[in-house]
Amino acid sequence: MTTLLHDLRLAFRLLARNPAFTLIVVVTLGLGIGLNTAVFSAIDALLLRPLPGVRAADQLVQVYRSWPGGAIYNSNSIPHYFDVRDRSHEVFSDVGLWGFLPMNLSVDGKPTRIFGEVASANMFDVFGARAAMGRTFVAAEDSGRGAHPVVVLSHPGWVKLFGADPGVIGKSVIVDGQSYQVVGVTAPEFKGGFTILTPVLWVPLTQLDQLNPESHQWDRRGNNSFNMIARMKPGIGIERVRQRMTGIVDELRRIYPDDYKENGINLVLQSDAGIHPMFKSAQVGLSAVIMGVVILLLLLACVNVANLMLARARDRAREMAVRLSLGAERRVLIRQLLTESIVLATLGGAAGLVIAAWAMRIANHAISTLPTEVEITPDLAISPTVLLSTLAVSLLTGVAFGLAPALQATRPALIPALKGEAPAGGSRSRMSRGLVVAQVALSILLLISAGLFLRSLEAATTVDKGFVSDNLLVADLDPGLQGYTRPRTEDFYRRLRERLEALPGVKGVGFGDHVPLSLNTSDWGVTIPGYTPSPNESMSILMSTVTPGYFEAIGTPLLKGRGFLAQDDSAAAPAIVINQRFGERFWPGQDPIGRTVRVSGKDHTVIGVTRTGKYSRLGENPTAYMYVAQAQHWTAGMSIMIRTSGDPQRLDAAVRREVRGLDPDLPISAAQTMDNRLALALLPARLAASVLGIFGLLGLVLASLGVYGVMSHTVAQRSREIGIRLAIGAAGGAVVRLLLRDGLRLVVAGTVIGLAAAVLGARLLRGVLYGAGLDPLTFAAVPVILGSVAVLAVWIPARRAAGVNPVVVLRQD
């Protein structure tokens, strides 16, 4: 202990004598460690950390319906929930159901549109969530559909709607035109079933008919729109549960052959689900790539610091030689130098925690303010796991950048070092040059990775989405939630459309129940007369319900046939519009116009074909899609699509005014441009590109400083040689060219190694990057940029060395 304290005191004293050196090392390491900490914190929060506010999350299982063809994470219907709940008592202690639902909310007479959740009364018990104020739902609220209307507020909803009023319990809110009593507020940490999405409030499942009278959810096993969560009994493993689920499916298949002929039950442990199991592979892949890049950045920082330590070792060569000559043991000197390195790394780790906390604060704010239709609450923070990992990284980096310089510094050529005539040996120069090659290679790899992600973002934003997002305003409303009958709703939409089309700058108006590339999607099973599905082929097709004018408003071109007209009403023959991929799949090489598609037991005639677009994700493969007429498949909740001739956001106030003119109590969601609506779909690409762009710039700066530092060091080592060359008549330009040639050899070697590594990395990233691979522009631009910076970093010390007075240099030596 005495020896350790002595080494620490000596380390702090020596570092205090060189504040500039200490500051540079701490900042360099702080950036590397801090960015690693921030990225690991994000991965920990989204993928690794247990669901917040939940008891024994390792016992929770998410339950999905599965169909052939890869549809393994489908939602559940209410009857299916009852089927599973009532037959799984031997493996589950409880089973709950919940689902997002748009709601019209009014507090103190102010209408607004929100996303809440309907949930079985036992959902909070399944999660093991507690109420911070009041209570959650009780069993009586699951006993009948006419139960007294109550709501439980989420903590963010309580703050947003009631300003964190402690007297909120017992107050009333108007949900879809009905009064609901607030009975509780959940704990701040509880978000529900998703790690980043928090509903404003929860309503008992028994109130679903009041919230959505025409949903027909209670008696249709194929009407899937809910998430099921179950808690395993103690001692029951997941394999035992899977066996029971297989048995349940077999039982249901015998009782309801039409409903369970092909589908099964898929289980996902809550701890393995991530944000959503559908995106798990993409989440893990993207996280691994970003984590790999920040590790590269940390390695680059370590290489930089190692070079600084080598330069410092040269300055301390005489000190080491004197101490060795006086009998000091080499292992003691190595220990003291490693102690200095670990102290520097610890200080860098502390700076890294500050940088990570600052970066996460910015990320939390940026993500939570995204213009999306649901409230995103990322809650990124430094957990104990991340704190321990930061400590481990700090200690490892201290050893990593300190060991080699310590070994070199304690092995000087004693006689020259004691006389102060030479640096501590050629091997150190070789190591320093090797570190320059490593710096350049790592920088090439880092910059190309960042460039590929930037190109990926560009490809994602410019991909053919199947519609035109420019000059398009989107807003959501649902008169049915206010108790409107169908005739009244139809009249409302007719008059609203007339008013909107009369607004200056409006070129087209249409309505649809789904906004492309949003969180909300629907699919229906179809039958194609004369088409026999292959084994495990899914016949569930994504779909939207739309009105006349929809395709013109959203900018989706019709390749054949026509869109819906006013004549396509409930009295007309059922019609359907499909996309190009639908036709290619079921009628390859044939004209699909006039063909028959059986949907919901009715034959629909194909009247039009649109271009294939993107519907759920920008990176999805071409997917079959269909559109049906709202008048023939009635739904009250719709999104308004308004095509404008100028900036669509300027019409926000006018659209709200027209809605209020028809019904001042009907809330409308914030009217947004379609480009803003796409923010969530582009979020992963934008985050990755932004983060990696910053990392790439930092890598460029670190590499430039590293090359400059080493070349300055190298020139200083060759000062006698340069003085002799100048004294015997060599021109300054020749000396500059000589030094440039030597320096650029290292840059070229590092570039070749870095490009080879980047080619391998790009091949590995093909599954993560969208629209990018071995991108020629990136692979050509990065070496040119880094090479130009390296030339400047070599030229500055070379030019300075060529301008010295040889007499002065030789006299000093």
Instruction: Enumerate the spans where pLDDT stays under 50 for 5 or more consecutive residues.
Output: 422-428
The helical percent reads: 40-55%
Count of DSSP-assigned helices: 23
Shape: elongated
Q: What's the end-to-end separation, in Å?
A: 44 Å
Lateral arrangement of strands in the main beta sheet: 3-4-9-6-8-7
* Main beta-sheet annotation: 6 strands, mixed, barrel
Q: How many strand segments?
A: 22
Q: Give me the Rg, rounded.
A: 33 Å
Q: Structural class per helix/strand content? A: alpha+beta
Percent of residues in β-strands: 15-25%
Seen as an oligomer or otherwise, the chain set is: single chain
What does this structure look like?
- Helix 2 packs across helix 10, helix 10 (330-368) runs antiparallel to helix 11 and helix 20 crosses helix 23.
- 49% of the residues lie in helices and 17% in strands.
- A hairpin with a 2-residue loop joins strand 18 (596-599) and strand 19 (602-610).
- Mean pLDDT is 80; it is low at 422-428.
- The strands form 3 sheets. The protein has a 6-stranded mixed β-barrel with strand order 3-4-9-6-8-7.
- The chain is α+β, with helices and mostly antiparallel strands.
- The protein has 23 helices and 22 strands.
- It is elongated.
Q: Could you give a quick summary of the protein structure above?
A:
The protein has 813 residues and is an alpha+beta fold.
Task: Give the SSE layout.
Layout lengths: L1 H16 L1 H30 L11 E8 L3 E4 L3 H10 L4 E16 L2 E10 L3 H5 L3 E4 L15 E4 L1 H8 L9 E4 L2 E9 L14 E4 L3 H4 L15 E6 L5 H18 L8 E6 L10 H36 L1 H9 L4 H39 L15 H26 L4 H6 L6 H37 L9 E6 L8 H16 L4 E7 L10 E5 L12 E7 L3 H5 L3 E4 L13 E5 H7 L9 E4 L2 E9 L14 E5 L8 E7 L7 H11 L9 E2 H4 L1 H39 L1 H9 L4 H33 L11 H27 L3 H7 L1
Parallel strand pairs: 4-9, 6-8, 15-20, 17-19
Antiparallel strand pairs: 1-2, 1-10, 1-11, 3-4, 3-7, 3-10, 5-8, 6-9, 7-8, 12-21, 12-22, 13-21, 14-15, 14-18, 16-19, 17-20, 18-19
